[in-house]
Amino acid sequence: MAALQEYCLECGLRLPGRSRLGPLPTETRDLRLRVVALACIAVAGAGVAIAAVDTDEGPEPILTATGGSVTTPAAPRARLAQWPRAARGWTIVLVSVPKAKGRDEAVAVAQHARVSGLRTVGVLDSSQFASLRPGYWMTFSGRYPSEAEATGLLRRARIAVKGARVQRVEP
Questions:
Q1: pLDDT at 71 over 60
Q2: Which pTM does this prediction carry?
């Protein structure tokens, strides 16, 4: 079967390259059939994909809680760390609560810090130490021999309490 040659309509010369075989793609009937065939293939593929992942075990039940209360056992609270009166060193102060507000707020911060992963958390009375401003309950984390050691762990303490700071404690 010989290929048809294409000619320039203006000058009548033969154009380079292979000539087209078959009719031009202007026939809408063939184009419609191709689009419909591709759409059928797409729908069939979607159906197969849905069937492959569908694990229909019926509708999920909707649980509704009405009234009543549930009592959960309280987690045992570990004892707070104590700062010995004669001890010197550095600590990380998590919060300073005025004594007028009460010790409970300082203890609550200590419990939160312990839940957040800090160890050796306690509350001390700032009035009993000369290096601290009197009149506060101070929640602290750890006892360190040097400022550098306390500062090295300050970042971890600030995860629990953003305003944590390093403080020297002397009797």
A1: no
A2: 0.54
